[in-house]
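re the bet — no i am not wrong, look at it urself. input seq straight from the record:
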Amino acid sequence: MKSLRQSWWLRVAALMAGVLATSALSAHATEYVFTNDDPGVSVFAVTPGGVLALQQQLQIGGFGNVAGFFGANRISVLDSGNQQCVYASAASTGEIAGIVVSTLTVAGSASGSPTDSGAANGIGLAMNSQYLYASFTSSNTIGTFQVQPGCSLTFVADVSGAGLAGGMINGIAIRGNIMIATFTDGSIESFDISAGTPVSNGDEQYSSATLSSTDATYPNSIDITSDGHYAIFGDTSTLGVVEVSDISSGKLMPTVVHTTKATISSSNVMLSPDETLLYAINTQGATVSAMFFDKKTGKLSGGCTSGQLTGESANWSYLAGLGLISETGNGGGVYVAEFGTPSGIAMVTLNSSGGNCSLQEAPSSPFADPNSAGLLSIGTFPPRSF
C-alpha cells in the first residue's frame, strides 16, 4: 500500500495550496476575525450585519510560507478566565506568536526545539487553557508549549509522529485528555495528553475511507464533540467525504464514512456551537456544506450546500479554513478563507428551519485580505465554547 499512498500524495499535492428560521446574525457575538497571513496577522472588526472591516496587521516576526495543508490550522484562540489570546504560527521560522486581544498587541513568540520545522507546509495549532500544541509538518513532530500569563508561551518538549506509510503530520485537535492527529498517507492516531506532553495511545490506523477508496481520499482536518465522544474528520477527496470515529473509550475506533457526490473535498470541518450541524468547506469545489449531526449517535444526515462562491479561479484557487459567524446556536453560517494572491474571506450565511437548511454567500462578500498571498487559516473571537 505504501506505493499507492505515495502515488496518491503526489497527485493531490498539486491540488493543495502548498433551530432558527433566519440567519443568526441578529445574535452576532463575534468581535474579531483574525487571519494568519504567514507571516503577520490581520485583524478584522466585525461590524453590524457581519461585515468585516480591516483594522490592522500585526507583525509577528520571522517569515512564513503561504503553502500548506488544509487541516493544519495556523490560528488558535483562547478565551479562558483573564486570558484572551490569539496564537499564530510562522512556518519558515517555526515561531508561534501570542497576541493579547484586549490591546491587539503581540506579547512575544516562542519556538520549539532546533529540529522542529514546519517550513514546507505550515505549523498546525490546537490548545486548551494550559497548553498549546503545534504540529510541525516538516519535522513530523508535535511540540508542547505551556501557556503563560499575558499570552506568552514556554516550550516544554516535542515528540515524533508520522503516518503508517511515513506520511507527514497534518491537523491536530484536542478535547479533554485526548489529542487526535491526521497524516498525509491516510493514517489517524490518538494521544493521551493528561500529563501535558502527548503519549501515543497505540491506535494508529488507516481511515476506513482511505482503505476502501485505495487511497483516493484521506482525512485532513479534525473536530471533536464537546463531550469527547466522537472525532470527526474532513477528507480531501474527489467526492465530499466526512468520517466519524467513536473515541469514548479513549482510543480511535474504525471510522464510519459519509459520502456525497454533490461536492468535491470536505477538507475543513467545524461543528456548530449547539452541535446540531457540521459545516464542511468543499476546498476544491468552491462551495460550503452543512450536514445535520446527532451528537448522541454520531450520525450525519441531510443538510444543504451553497452555490459556487464568487471569484474562483479569477481571484482565488481554493477555499480553506473557517470560522463561525456566531458563537451561539447553529453558528449562523461561516467565514471562509479564500486562498489567492491577494486572498479574501467569504461570508456564507445559514437559514435553518424544520429540518431543512440553506446556505448563501452574503451580498457584501468577499472581504479582501490584502496582506495575505495565500490565506489558509482564520480564527474568530470570541471562539466557540468548546
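see?? The longest helix spans residues 2-13. told u. also Helices lie at 2-13, 208-212. so pay up
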